[in-house]
């Protein structure tokens, strides 16, 4: 029997993420661009990692805030996605990030965790944190997502 492509439209959000994540390094995407790696994928909770590098630098030489914002947007949005039914999508409506400390660009392992707070019919909210490899809080955020078919 030939290898058949799974019907992605019939998969729940969690099933879709689990099926797609191993292939993400094969296609251009923001995760590949900044070096995100998949950690946990559970219903309502997602964890991604990245290791800082000189390409992540802002003009002052530390990690640009956009790297943490992108990591947070990704884990919170994907956490919402894990709760969706087949054929349902989402868009980020709002993202609020608080930066706690600067991060050097010399190989610090960052862990972003996103958790769903509320999932309704038309909107969802989630919270996220980024910790460094010493367990220190680097940034935290909240998001509101629009749910659409």
From TrEMBL:
GO cellular component: cytosol
InterPro entries xref list: HotDog_dom_sf, PAAI_dom, Thioestr_dom
Keywords, comma-separated and alphabetical: Hydrolase
Lineage top rank: taxon: Bacteria
Transmembrane regions: none
Ranges of residues in domain Thioesterase: 61-139
Pfam families from the UniProt entry: 4HBT
GO molecular function: 1,4-dihydroxy-2-naphthoyl-CoA thioesterase activity
NCBIfam families: unchar_dom_1
Protein name: Thioesterase domain-containing protein
Organism of derivation: Hoyosella rhizosphaerae
């Amino acid at each position: 029997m030939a290898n058949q492509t799974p019907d992605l439209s019939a998969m729940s959000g969690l099933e879709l993420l689990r099926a797609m994540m191993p292939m993400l390094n094969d296609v251009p995407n923001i995760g590949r661009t900044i070096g995100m790696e998949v950690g946990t994928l559970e219903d309502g909770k997602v964890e991604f990692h990245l290791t800082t590098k000189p390409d992540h630098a802002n003009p002052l030489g530390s990690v640009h805030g956009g790297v943490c914002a992108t990591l947070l947007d990704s884990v919170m949005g994907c956490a919402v996605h894990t709760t969706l039914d087949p054929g349902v999508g989402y868009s980020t409506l709002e993202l609020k990030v608080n930066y706690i400390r600067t991060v050097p660009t010399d190989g610090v392992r960052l862990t972003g965790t996103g958790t769903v707070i509320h999932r309704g019919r038309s909107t969802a909210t989630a919270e996220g944190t980024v910790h460094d490899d010493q367990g220190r809080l680097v940034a935290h955020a909240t998001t509101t997502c629009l749910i659409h078919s």
